Amino acid sequence: MGSATGVHHLAINVQDVEEPLEFFTQACGMELVAFYWMHGVADAYHIFLKLDEYSSLALVRDPAQDGVLLDDDQRDGIGNPMPGGNMQHVSFNVPTEEDLAALNDRIRAHGYQTFGPIDHGFCHSVYVPGVAERMMVEFSWSRAPFAPDEWIDPTCTEHAGLTEAQVSRYRCPEPFSGGNGAQPPLDPRRQGIPAWLAKTLADEQRLSAFEATLDEAK
What we know:
Elements (H helix, E strand, L loop, with lengths): L5 E8 L4 H10 L3 E7 L7 E8 L2 E7 L25 E7 L3 H13 L5 E5 L3 E9 L3 E8 L5 H4 L2 H6 L4 H8 L23 H4 L5 H14 L1
């Protein structure tokens, strides 16, 4: 008793909501299961994408973080600004409420301050600030898997500028039946793969297609 069993959720700061939602739902096949106002943080919201019944990728949109640059002094700590794309915190899954209480006691017995358990509605969480490179570490126990009809708040999605049609797409990504494996044209908004790394590809057809995208980007 008193041990984590997996990752409950991995939270990443984002400044743009639509692009990561498009990528993780449509390109990666994850389902949108929650989109709600973040507890205790004004104008911020939490977005959860399903990995399995009790494990999620979480996107955190907090306007207070806009414009924050990557800096060692801005890595976590309670309330400290963090740059977009940086991991905000990691939460580890704990199987039962009793395990969460036991783990909380165990962590304190080893000299670390904690706060919680905090009831978030869908889970109870204990937090340990300032450990592991000053990262906020969370441990969570969920009563049940997310029920999207309860946890996707239309006032929140509207505030984020998402339409009902977009939310429906993110909740139910289209199944993928396979493609031809060719590289798409390089998107100037994204960082491309270096030419030296591309040469490690064994498939000559895919390598030729990739080199064509490099030529287009010149």
